[in-house]
Hints:
CATH topology of the largest domain: MetI-like fold
Number of strands: 4
Mean pLDDT: 84
CATH class of the largest domain: Mainly Alpha
Helix content: over 70%
Strand content: under 5%
Strand order of the largest sheet: 1-2
Largest sheet: 2 strands, antiparallel
Radius of gyration: 24 Å
Structural class: mainly alpha
Number of helices: 14
CATH architecture of the largest domain: Orthogonal Bundle
Amino acid sequence: MRRTLQAIPLxxxxxxxxxxxxxxxxxxxxxxxxxxxxxxxxxxxxxxxNLGMDQPVPIQxxxxxxxxxxxxxxxxxxxxEPVFQALIERIGATLELMxxxxxxxxxxxxxxxxxxxxxxxxxxxxxxxxxxxFGQSMPVFWFALMMQLAFAVHGIPxxxxxxxxxxxxxxxxxxxxxxxxxxEHLVLPTVVLSLLSIALYSRFMRSxxxxxxxxxxxxxAAAKGLSFxxxxxxxxxxxxxxxxxxxxxxxLPSLLSGAIITETIFAWPGMGRLFINALNQSDLALLMGYxxxxxxxxxxxxxLADVVYAWLDPRVKYD
Length: 319
């Protein structure tokens, strides 16, 4: 409860900073209207009055904050619909993509980190380390284009005349729901998004588990005659997961914020692509709603990480 209450002034401070930055962008809230070559000074004055921009900026912010507190995030000029509705319409596609990516990243990354730590300095450890460095160094936009070129444009030949040919963009081929078709469209963007996270999780998991394996209580457990499997999974793994939880928790905001570059390249109709469109069209109401949502998710993820810490290690106290 105390940490939750501490998050309230933090979110308010973030909203003040975001509001100030977006308000001072070129054109400000009137930017979408100023792109019209036929607009007159009288039109601009009328728009300022209708939007409340003829009042002091602090008053404008307080009015905006009051609307946010009752669930009114404003009106999107680029989509001609309420901001909240625009975000809700695209949250499903983002959850589908980011959820699959996060699940694969956690399973593969944590497993690879455990294997790398258990068989350290072996061929398997070197292979996993090399792949991890590759994943951390690879530019996302370039890797996404290469995946499209290999699997969508040319295709990967298989024995007996078969070929792997995957869709290059979009979430589905038609409006009719087809699970197989949706999964085919999901493969390439999921692989691209998972690569960096798998590399990150595996390196953190390896480092943390190696540190735990060298502690006194792990050696004591081995001296008592316990099997290595019992020592690893019952005594070591929970403590080794604590640093990894921090990294995973900070990845949770991407579940709703979306991956801007990947969604744009693969034409995925999620929130990341929505942000790019709003930015290109100076849709400040939509930008503000999106960024405020991301800020809330980051704060909430840190709060969730604190709770998981206490579950993994009872010695953790928040006095």
